[in-house]
Design brief:
about 160 residues, two-stranded antiparallel sheet, mainly alpha, about 60% helix
Length: about 160
């Protein structure tokens, strides 16, 4: 069997291994605890949008007396994640991700926030394969690049954490 005949099998096998590795990374977070500081805010914004409040102002229920403490400067979020602009708590990231995540949040709970980043990583892998195929790069080089991107670069890790 020629090496070129093995190419689709090798590439599919590596893609499958990458998806399994990504699934493993996605299984690690527990109880809606997010790695990055803005992950929790994206969750709060998505929940706010799910409740029907589609506003750039971050509004979430506080414990009794919490609002007064927040007015005294003890608001739980600050720069660079949230800015107080005209008494609105404005998040520093685009609202498109929380908006696009609402259907996944409704269907899967907090784990729904991981759907778009994971899908983006898989899309990047497939795009890389298609580009290598179009450039007629040899199978060995494609496999080496693909293994490096999946297992040795932060791309897969970033797709597995919010």
């Amino acid at each position: 069997m020629k090496l070129l005949e093995l190419r689709p099998v090798l590439i599919f096998t590596l893609l499958l291994l990458g998806v399994l590795y990504l699934a493993y990374l996605l299984s690690l977070p527990k109880d809606a605890v997010f790695f990055s500081g803005d992950g929790g805010l994206k969750y709060l914004m998505s929940r706010q949008f799910l409740r029907g409040n589609v506003s750039p102002d971050l509004v979430f229920p506080s414990a009794s007396g919490g609002g007064e403490l927040w007015k005294k400067g003890l608001y739980p979020f600050g720069a660079p994640f949230v800015y107080d602009i005209n008494n609105w708590k404005i998040v520093s990231f685009s609202l498109y991700f929380p908006l696009a995540s609402v259907p996944f949040l409704a269907a899967m709970g907090w784990r729904g926030l991981y759907v778009l980043p994971a899908a983006g990583v898989i899309f990047a892998w497939i795009w890389m394969i298609l580009c290598c195929h179009a450039a007629r790069i040899c199978t060995t080089a494609v496999c080496a690049v693909f293994v490096s991107i999946i297992f040795a670069s932060p791309l897969t890790l970033y797709g597995g954490m919010e």
